[in-house]
Amino acid sequence: MADSCDVFAGVVCTLRMKGGGFGVVDLFVDYHLSIGFSHIWLYFDDIHDDSWKEVKDYSEERLTIIRRSQSEREKVWTNDSPDLIKRLGGIGVTRDHVTARQILNASEALKTALKAPENSSRHVEYLVHIDIDELFYTKSNSIIPHFRWLKSQGIHHITYANHEGIPHRTDIDNYFTQITLFRRNLLTLSLSPSTKKSVSFFTSRTPHHQYFLFYDNGKSAVRVQPGVFPKNVHGWSLPRPEMGQGMQSEGKSKRMVSALVDARNLNLKGYVDVRDPCILHYPVCGERWLRSKYEILGPFPTHWPSLERKVNIPPCFHLDARKAATSPKPTEKLKDLFLSQVILSDNLEISKQIASGTCMRITDIASRRV
Description:
The chain has helices spanning 24-34, 70-80, 82-90, 98-115, 144-152, 175-178, 193-203, 252-255, 287-297, 317-325, 330-342, 347-356, and strands at 9-15, 39-44, 63-67, 126-129, 134-137, 157-160, 162-165, 181-183, 219-223, 229-230, 236-237, 256-258, 278-281, 303-304, 311-312, 359-361. With 370 residues, the protein is α/β, with parallel strands linked by helices.
């Protein structure tokens, strides 16, 4: 039975699987329910994606599955989200962009949580927005004490550190159960000589000197309240103080915090020492997942959409994979990228990475089930 002081949280995720879910969707739901999330919203981005069947037997009280055709999605845009259309249009982002749909879905889940009866699992006080290749990870048995602490501190928005999964072979099906090695976020490392050497190993493998192949700016949870908007897939826009209950009396530094200290600008304002929970990111963890990701994305725009501004994507692995996937020999080109820049199968090097603290092992995901 839930304690009257419990603070419940939900997860919203937009996903599209190609060629089957391989148990990924099932574990995503099962794992997050097992650590205490009250409700999960899954928005399937392709009406023909059959991976929803992996989770069709979960109770509707704990899991909401949304599958819409293009015409049904257009109705939602037109009838329920004209404000989002206006904001997206202001930065040149069309409704067809996947990030626009992620923003739409996160906004809708938040509205559902606001309207839900207090005795419903959908009545969550915090909402986490992550992708199907990510997990909200904690060593604890439950995330409820963490969200209770956030509420007690008056924290309305928190950004968690993300750590990047590293595949050890090409043939990965369920990356959640098969990937156990992670690069720690650079902003969480103490750069000792051994750590710097380990970091250099990764940066030397890519032409763009990347340590992470994908994002390093974390993912966020927000306090559910009127006036909140998802500004992008990484964070939320908070309402003006007069719009949020109790926000007038809370200091601005406590409203919006981050577990990441960006050494590039030495901005310590709003930093909180939260290392657990964190986000485990499993990008392209297996050759098939690399191909699938970029077949789905296609020739995507070369800028990041956000409700704040449009940001051009700098030269990086992401753009190189885009180029490889749209080349005359996509399978061959993507495999070359995977073998040269993604996979790490050298056991001696893995041991060095773990010993330096640059990488870590997490092996308990498969056992964390409802």
